[in-house]
Every structure is written in C-alpha cells, then in structure tokens.
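hey m, so remember when u said the tokens were messed up on ur end? i reran from scratch. heres the input so u can diff it against urs
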Amino acid sequence: MNIVLTGFMGTGKSAVGRRLAEDLHVSFFDADVLIAAQVGKTVAEIFNSAGEGVFRAVETQVIEELAKADRSVISTGGGALINRQNREHLQKNGLLVCLTARVGTLLERLKDDMTRPLLAGEALPQKIERLMKERQSVYDLCRFQVITDGKTIAHVAREIMMLVRPEWE
C-alpha cells in the first residue's frame, strides 16, 4: 500500500511527501521529478517545447510505473488525477490524500514561482481560482483531505500519518 499525495500546486505535496517518507522510513517518489528525468527537461521546458499533451502522456506512463510500488509515498502533479486512468492506477494500491489550502495561502506560496507553466498567461489570483474550480471535483474524490494552511511540513506529515495509519499498517 502506498500513500499518494495530490492537490493543487503549492499545497506542499513534494515537501510533505519527502518528510512523510522520511518519518515512515520508506521511499519517496515525486512524479514531476521522474517525468523531468525521463524527458531530460524541466516540467516548464516540457510544457514550453512540447506542450501539455506531451507532458500528460509521459505523466501517465510514469504514474503507471509508480503505482506498482509498495510501501512508498508518491507525490503527483496537481493535475495528474484529472486523468481517470491515472486515478485508477494509483487507487489500486494507494491511499489518496489531497492536500488543500486557501487561495490566499496559495497566492503567497506561488507568487514568485516562475517554474509553474500552468500559471503563466493570466493574473495569478484568477488563474488559481479557475484551475482550482476545474479540479475540485477530482480532488473531492480523495478519501483523505488535509488542510495545509498555517501548518508546518512536519505537522502536515504527522496529520497524514494519523489519518492513514489504520490502513497503512
């Protein structure tokens, strides 16, 4: 059984995932890092040179492989679970945990981050609100929901451990 972290960009999936894996003494896999390594470009470079479609196709391949892991923590990109196939792969052997945060928190966390290709092209508050609204129904499918506003990485990791412990052990 894996613990799969999802949620909107800026909610802390990668940082919390690393900490959670460290606390549990298991492997940590960040889907975006693996995608970049496979393609040989950063996520932003993939979006800019090949487009979101190519990124999503590689993402699906990477997630299919990640879903075969066991006793690991997996961090997905914020849009990964929109693809039903990705969701199904991860749910077979994973506990889906959605990290959430208020728009104001996300604005603060993302305002200076130029590495997020989906945030380019329109005013940041409107872009975040629009994308969150588009993805909310998918995020709501996750059984476990953890709010990250005002919490440390360690606190969020502990909260996740408490939520999933009965099924994880």
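this time it looks ok to me. The first helix runs from residue 13 to 24. if urs says something different then somethings off w ur setup not the seq
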